[in-house]
Amino acid sequence: MAHNLLQGKKGIIFGALDEHSLAWKTALRCVEEGAQIVLTNAPIALRMGEIKKLAETCNAPVIPADVTNMEDLKNLFTKSMEHFGGKIDFVLHSVGMGMNVRKGRPYTDLDYDFNHKTFDISAMSLHRVLQTAYQVDAINDWGSVVALTYIAAQRVFPDYSEMADAKALLESIARSFGYHYGIRNKVRINTVSQSPTKTTAGSGVKGFDGFMAYAEKMSPLGNATADQCANYCVTLFSDLTRMVTMQNLFHDGGFSFTGVSAAIAEQMEK
Ligand code: NAI
């Protein structure tokens, strides 16, 4: 059900690859709530992906940008402002890539070229995006930026590997830049720490089905779905959450604050 929460707002959505992507669901919900959007992804993902379908449904242009390329990012913000005829109100950063994980290298035997790439794509990219927006003054006062993260930034999930470190950096950048953008433009910056969700990036983690099932049993409300994540992002882009900034917000059905659940304890007794 739509409530026109984003009526008149304009945003950029990074990271919609296919219909399972958290960004895909969020793009659809933003448009349903009255927003106009620009979609973006890495050029290679655009060639492989199905984003054209989403673009048609959302009546949105697609502007390619590799998040590690400053020229691409500058072009993205400049073209988006041209398209909208003014500044934007919100940004979703839904980008991640674990190179060592992908290549099957364990945490105790990382390749550091891959590791740099992982940090650049998954974490520093948020700084790159924010710095570009800040310097070209692309975001309206009281705008909102959300980046997606995972609880492995705070607690060890061994198979999440180097991505845990990338997420810790991502969350720190949201806090640090949140200060500066807040002072200058009242722009708020938060990370949403989402339950494990079956997507292309999610399924890349070894033993993913196991820890998704574990999280489901540990969370009093169960795992948050991709659609629910999209709803939460909409609230953060809306004017109803104007004073929330520099936070890591758990969207995980209570997983983060549960020590043990009856369901898990029962299983251990078997
Ligand atoms: P996804 O695979 O659909 O999205 C990842 C996106 O990153 C893709 O669209 C991909 O093309 C894009 N990307 C990769 N390299 C890029 C580059 N160099 N430039 C621009 N874009 C690039 O998977 P999902 O799960 O929707 O991931 C979105 C975000 O949510 C990621 O940050 C992920 O870590 C985070 N997240 C996912 C969870 C899950 O269980 N699926 C749980 C918590 C957070």
Automatic annotation (TrEMBL):
Q: Which residues are responsible for catalysis? A: 150 (proton acceptor), 160 (proton acceptor)
Q: Can you tell which superkingdom this protein's organism belongs to?
A: Bacteria
Q: What residues bind NAD(+), as annotated?
A: 15, 66-67, 95, 167
**Pathway connected to this protein:** Lipid metabolism; fatty acid biosynthesis
What Pfam families does the database record attribute to this sequence?
Answer: adh_short_C2
Positions the record marks as coiled coil are: none
Alphabetical list of InterPro entries matching this protein: Enoyl-ACP_Rdtase_NADH, NAD(P)-bd_dom_sf, SDR_fam
Q: Give the main EC class.
A: oxidoreductase
Q: Which residues cross the membrane?
A: none
Gene Ontology molecular function: any one: enoyl-[acyl-carrier-protein] reductase (NADH) activity
The UniProt family comment states:
Belongs to the short-chain dehydrogenases/reductases (SDR) family. FabI subfamily.
Mind telling me what this protein is named? Enoyl-[acyl-carrier-protein] reductase [NADH]
Source organism per entry reads: Chitinophaga japonensis
